[in-house]
Write a structure and sequence with these properties.
Length: about 725
């Protein structure tokens, strides 16, 4: 008995049908609002209902992604989206905001919730908290190690990515598009700045390259290791990709899961979309092919090399309509089109001059869409009885429908062949009809009346197979968060020497070397900063140092149960992405002593959520990415091991790139915005982040308005991107 599902993306109806017809067990999709892929076509309620009926007839589940952050003013629209999706047949709702989900589940326990990967679940404490909040499944952060997955799977149902694009930043913690490009990834509007050219001030990395662009994930045959670890749902990324990509990806993993090698399907997959050398991802450990520094975009499958300036030596039978890309030394030179066939290959046309030895890659195969067309039907068996003088009777299993009494034929009575031909037409339903018994005798029925009986029967059968789901009118009133003004201050710093704040948050450069002398420096309550990605090995690393601190500041949900387990106060960091009063009140109720609001709220929005213990980032640096991998490709032996680097984009903007160490072989990195932050004061307490700039900004931590910050940004103080 199969205990897993193959889950495929559905950015539109053609992609959904491609996934289902090629063997997907479930699809996931978005609505026009609150979808983390707002650029996809997405689905309205009517289209969702149509798809859900089609999918459910074939035993396929439909999950709806409402996985962006929600503000107070949007709670009504969010509730309407949940109501409509559930009524249309959604089997589960995916959410990023765990605490809003908790409120939703408490009020409407019948709704099934899955926790989006944007919530960053990567360890057992986060998984247990998600289950406590009412989520029946967690979509694991892509960075979660296999050993950690096995532990999580014993707590709650797990879903893991097996194929598709990888985000550079840790799940849910990317703000680069937001602060540097005015388009929020947390709102589904990411402009993918990670796919741009950057240089880094380290030997060998000075030339512009795709320094942050990750190769596409393809776990391939290791998918069975995920199943062995307890993963229930195997997820293919790609709501922005074409139907043929979805079809090829589903075929590939279906072949592997059923014992095949998947070679032909993998070839089709590369031709449909391939960013470059595939990676097995961080779950199986960082490999040399994790980064795609030389190539960006679809480069297809290698099919040959240039013999001269126009002829490609290849065993591939190219044809009209095929498109190619030419690579030279691993870098893309230009595109090319099929011109004509030749002996041992084919001729190409290109705008650039092609050279002998250039690599030719097939990026558009004209025959691919037709080859990937699938068909999937639900088998049903009908019995028909059309006898003169008796009611017409049609049955399928325990469903038996009767219609008006049939007249005697005067000339040409109904035949068995006519009845079978009529009921073999299923009015668009994905049904494969066979007949158990067909009885007819001397009956007459006009063709229009026979067609009407068929339509009525299939409508009744649909109602039998897919019982109507009652609409749940979801209401999510925004609770009061208490109001008032927080006068206290909090400071994040890797060196607290000379600093004063009500809460000093110590951010180690090496979690294995937390010194008591460093912690005791500065004046204020001492909290330990914990990053969003945190494994059981990381926890073991910091446990000896916990007695040095009064509390824990954490950018991941896991931090709250960790703090409780060790009797520490807890500060919910900006990484919790708190954007509405429901989430703020639930954070307090769950035990958070201090709360940091989302970095992407305006001052006015922060004021509305302010109260005792509530803080807002207003001074210093703005962390825009958490990297759980080495951007220098793990070249440890040649590494200069500097604390900080500078990442420069094509516009000349310079972003601090900071290194730190936790458990594991590789260092981890953070990227900060290219300009410092000095926001307007609001009613929330001031949170300052001095990471990497302690000497420069430390003297002004208590009075940031006096800091000489040239070109400082006010962040989203006047314009929210949510």
């Amino acid at each position: 008995m199969k205990t897993y599902e193959l889950l495929a993306p559905a950015g539109d109806m053609p992609s959904a049908r491609a996934a289902i017809c090629n063997g997907a067990d479930a699809v996931y999709l978005g609505l026009p609002r609150f979808s983390a892929r707002s650029g996809a076509e997405n689905f309205g309620f009517d289209a969702l209902k149509e798809l859900a009926e089609y999918a459910h007839l074939l035993g396929v589940k439909v999950y709806v992604c409402l996985n962006t952050l929600v503000k107070d003013g949007e709670l009504g629209g969010f509730a309407e989206s949940v109501s409509g999706a559930w009524a249309a047949g959604a089997d589960a709702i995916l959410m990023q905001d765990m605490l809003l989900g908790k409120k939703l589940k408490e009020r409407y326990p019948g709704i099934v919730l899955h926790l989006s990967t944007q919530a960053g679940c990567c360890n057992v404490r986060g998984a247990a908290f998600a289950k406590e909040c009412g989520f029946s499944r967690v979509v694991l952060a892509r960075e979660t190690p296999l050993a950690e997955i096995e532990k999580i799977a014993k707590i709650v149902e797990t879903e893991a990515f097996v194929q598709g694009a990888l985000c550079t930043s840790f799940s849910g913690q990317c703000y680069l598009s937001s602060f540097a490009g005015n388009n929020s990834g947390n709102r589904g509007r990411c402009k993918q700045p990670c796919r741009k050219l950057y240089s880094i001030d380290r030997a060998g990395y000075e030339k512009p390259a795709y320094a942050l662009s990750l190769s596409d994930l393809c776990v391939g045959k290791r998918v069975k290791e995920l199943l062995s670890a307890g993963v229930v749902s195997l997820k293919i990324e790609g709501r922005m990709r074409r139907p043929e990509y979805v079809a090829a990806a589903v075929r590939y993993y279906r072949a592997l899961l059923e014992g095949g090698d998947g070679a032909a399907a993998l070839s089709d997959l590369k031709r449909a979309y391939n960013r470059g050398g595939y990676t097995e991802g961080l779950g199986f450990g960082q490999k040399g092919d994790l980064l795609s520094r030389k190539v960006q975009g679809h480069i297809g499958e290698r099919v040959g090399t240039m013999r001269d300036g126009s002829f490609c030596l290849s065993g591939y039978a190219a044809r009209k309509g095929d498109g190619f890309k030419i690579l030279r030394g691993g870098k893309e030179i230009c595109g090319a089109l099929f011109r004509e066939s030749g002996k041992g290959g084919f001729f190409l046309s290109a705008k650039e001059r092609l050279l002998q030895g250039d690599e030719v890659r097939l990026t558009t195969e004209a025959a691919l869409p037709a080859r990937l067309e699938g068909d999937r039907k639900r088998e049903i068996t009908l019995s028909l009885k059309f006898v003169a003088g008796e009611p017409a009777r049609v049955s399928c299993g325990d469903l038996c429908e009767t219609y008006s009494v049939l007249e005697h034929a005067r000339s040409a009575p109904l035949t068995e062949e006519e009845l079978k031909a009529c009921f073999s037409r299923t009015d668009g339903l994905p049904l494969a009809v066979t007949f158990e018994e067909v009885e007819t005798a001397d009956a007459f029925l006009p063709k229009a009346a026979l067609n009407a009986i068929r339509r009525a029967f299939y409508k009744a059968l649909l109602s039998k197979l897919l019982p109507r789901r009652e609409r749940v009118e979801v209401l999510l009133p925004a609770p009061s968060v208490g109001g008032g003004k927080e006068e206290r201050t909090a400071v994040i710093a890797s060196s607290a020497e000379g600093l004063f704040a009500d809460v000093l948050i110590y951010k180690p450069r090496d979690y294995a070397r937390i010194a008591a002398a460093d912690v005791s420096a500065g004046t204020g309550k001492k909290f330990l900063y914990l990053p969003p990605f945190f494994s059981s090995a990381d926890e073991a690393l910091v446990l000896p140092a916990l007695p040095l601190f009064e509390g824990i500041y954490c950018d991941g949900y896991y931090g709250l149960p960790l703090a409780k387990a060790h009797g520490k106060e807890f500060f919910a960091g900006t990484g919790w992405n708190l954007t509405n009063a429901a989430a703020v009140s639930e954070a307090r109720a769950a035990g958070a002593d201090y709360i940091a609001l989302s970095k992407e709220l305006t001052s006015q929005e922060q004021d509305a959520l302010a109260g005792q213990g509530v803080f807002a980032l207003g001074f210093g640096g703005v962390k825009v990415m958490d990297l759980c991998y080495c951007p220098f490709e793990g070249t440890c032996t040649a590494c200069d091991r500097r604390r900080s680097y500078t990442l420069t984009d094509e516009e000349g903007r310079k972003f601090p790139l900071l290194r730190y160490r936790a458990s594991g072989e590789r260092c981890r990195f953070e990227i900060y915005n290219c300009v410092p932050l000095r926001a307007e004061k609001c009613r929330a307490g001031l949170l300052s982040d001095l990471t990497g700039r302690e000497r420069e900004l430390g003297p002004f931590a208590a009075c940031p308005e006096k800091a000489p910050l040239a070109g400082a940004s006010r962040g989203h103080a006047n314009r929210s991107l949510l």
